[in-house]
Amino acid sequence: MRAQTQADATRPPADLGFGYFTESRVFPSPATATDAYEYPLSAVGILDFHDPKTDKGASCTAWVFPSRIIVTAGQCVVHASTTASGRYFFDDFIFKPSYHDEKGYTPLGLWTMTYAIVANGWYQSDGSVPNPEDWAVLIAADKTDKSGTHKLADVTGGLGVATYALDANHLTILGYPENLDDGVLLQRSDAQTYSSPGANVYDYGSNFLTGSAGSPFVQDMGQAPSGVYYPFNFVAGVASFASNNNNSPGYLAASQFNGDFAALLKQACDHNAGNC
Amino acid sequence: MSPRLAVGSLIFVGAIALLSGAAHAESGLVSAPASPAAARYFWTPQRLLSAKPMIPVARPGTTLAPVAIPESEAASVLVPAEPPTLRPAPGMAVKLPQAANGIIRTQVPPPNYYDDGYYSESRVFPVPANTGPYPYPETAIGQLYYTDLSGGTHSCTAAVLTKRIVVTAAHCIAQASTTASGRGFYSNFGLYPSRNGGGGPLGLWNFTSEHVPAIWYDSDGSFPNQEDWGFLVAADTADGHTISETTGHLGYQTNSLHANHVTMLAYPYNFDSGNMMQRSDAANFAAAARNTWIYASNFYVGADGGPWIENFGIAPTGGVNNANIVVAVGSYFPPNFQPGYMGASEFNGDFATQLKAVCALTAGNC
Question: I want to staple A237 with a disulfide (CB 3.0 to 4.6 A). Which of A154, A166, B60, B92 is the partner?
């Protein structure tokens, strides 16, 4: 799959009136702790990282863009600041695709990162949301075993990218929010565009909270039946922030992938031969 | 045509009175007995393959209006879902012929929106290996075959709603008409729960009686209709097990179709030729006439009768309390004979009363 850029001027504006959603644990859970979720779910995982200034660890949700790239929220990769001295990258990134269950099984392994790129719109901001470009990409190191050297997407599969597709749509959000199943099982939340605070950010009804930053908002998530002529599993944005209403579920907001994101992704693709 | 009996009416006089159209049982249901044994051997591969979709479409000129939430909400009834308690019995699975690709094709890829309504669509996945059953709650949804009044065979989608009662659209159960001679119940009902391609992993289930609202039965059969839902009472297995012991059943809630987000599960002919279960997710984006509400979808014929489910799936800890609640069943499509949206009649107080009447027919129905 490759990045798809579509201005899609024919799409009508969302009415911005429907905050309803459906939420479920992704099911069936893999049969055993060492089995992965079925594709395309296998391309989503937990991203652990470390903040060198505070010496604290945290986790987000991330997903694979073939072949070596993972995409997540900017806030999961750097500490943003309006001053050069205040901003810095996090470190010790570990991606755990298809993670599930309390015992911490990572059926598709642990993947380290070799390089990270974050949008300037996030990096040089004051770190508050809504932010028009709360996204980042990282490049995963290959793994070598007896059968040879493997790129990340060889193992996980990957999702596509659709730009300008968040503003009026119906999408499936996939993530590991800590308020559901303690954040150890993959969840899905389905909704249509609900509202917008402006700044290239759009809200979707959801009950995902902390831990879901970076969760992909996927268009046509699933497996295409015969009789369908359009591509499936395109990501239109990644989760940035949740409604802050006494922690009661309400909506999840994401920055819409746009031309800037496509440029960022291209930069990561061009960084090493075979990245994309 | 089956004789028509009022629920709870044990004497045929009641039926004669009903045929006049002047009086109905308190529940507003009309009912017919069925012979499950006769339907048992009706569905040969040839008959299954020759089944054609009916095409229920909104009458031309049907207008859609913005969703307006009534100020005073009617109290809603909520009955929870229950998972199966039995594993599929040995020998239960049947082999099914698969329709060839392209029975129904929409020539133009539909956009994923209709007016202000957007939707997501996917084959239900993972697809169980070896044509095995889908996991609960998907076990409770199946493909329903029947014979119409002129002998044609058709299919709809249906769902197990209580221990023995299966819900689908009324138009999948009976022919409506404003004249007594024009209406009648269909026959040879057969449900393949959890149908998966060439397999009916939970077997073929037949029924002991069928029930539709008089509001449907006595109507002119056009859409929208206020109460396009109906009930089939499944016969137990030879060793006395109810259908829901094997399939589990979904819950239901009344007055909850407007202003909601649902998952439709169905066997539409335009995807995988109706051989596989599909899901379509959308929020309510418009109101239509006669207690019906509109959701965007690219499901087409064969999806009618399928359950529209609130909180579909497996609730995580910390998530919603009541999962897998049916709020309506698919009724009709846009008037232009193309997919785009589906309309459904909102389960209401009549629905609860009617279901209660069918529950009361035999101990253990609910």
Answer: A166
